[in-house]
Automatic annotation (TrEMBL):
<dbReference type="GO" id="GO:0003735">
    <property type="term" value="F:structural constituent of ribosome"/>
</dbReference>
<dbReference type="Pfam" id="PF00886">
    <property type="entry name" value="Ribosomal_S16"/>
</dbReference>
<dbReference type="GO" id="GO:0009507">
    <property type="term" value="C:chloroplast"/>
</dbReference>
<dbReference type="InterPro" id="IPR023803">
    <property type="entry name" value="Ribosomal_bS16_dom_sf"/>
</dbReference>
<protein>
    <recommendedName>
        <fullName>Small ribosomal subunit protein bS16c</fullName>
    </recommendedName>
</protein>
<keyword id="KW-0689">Ribosomal protein</keyword>
<dbReference type="GO" id="GO:0005739">
    <property type="term" value="C:mitochondrion"/>
</dbReference>
<keyword id="KW-0150">Chloroplast</keyword>
<dbReference type="InterPro" id="IPR000307">
    <property type="entry name" value="Ribosomal_bS16"/>
</dbReference>
<keyword id="KW-0687">Ribonucleoprotein</keyword>
<dbReference type="GO" id="GO:0032543">
    <property type="term" value="P:mitochondrial translation"/>
</dbReference>
<dbReference type="GO" id="GO:0015935">
    <property type="term" value="C:small ribosomal subunit"/>
</dbReference>
<keyword id="KW-0934">Plastid</keyword>
<comment type="similarity">
    <text>Belongs to the bacterial ribosomal protein bS16 family.</text>
</comment>
<dbReference type="InterPro" id="IPR020592">
    <property type="entry name" value="Ribosomal_bS16_CS"/>
</dbReference>
């Protein structure tokens, strides 16, 4: 099952995340199917590729709870 979830990048104590489509059994920082955006929790910046996200959601990809909240805040969902 594919999920829309966060992949951690960045340094120690300076996290940054990429929004990716991955198999739910893959490890957190594993190889994604596709990268569709990023989120920086320190500066509160985010960028989402809306057409790609809508395409994957139409295919039935389920977002995690955190990703769902980020998409709701950005008024995508």
């Amino acid at each position: 099952m594919l999920k829309l979830r966060l992949k951690r990048i960045g340094r120690k104590r300076a996290p940054s995340y990429r929004l990716v489509v991955m198999e739910n059994s893959a490890r957190r920082d594993g190889r994604p199917v596709e990268e569709v955006g990023y989120y920086d929790p320190i500066s509160k910046k985010s960028h989402f590729d809306i057409p790609k996200i809508e395409k994957w959601l139409s295919y039935g990809v389920q977002p995690t709870e955190t990703v769902f909240n980020l998409l709701k805040k950005a008024e995508i969902v």
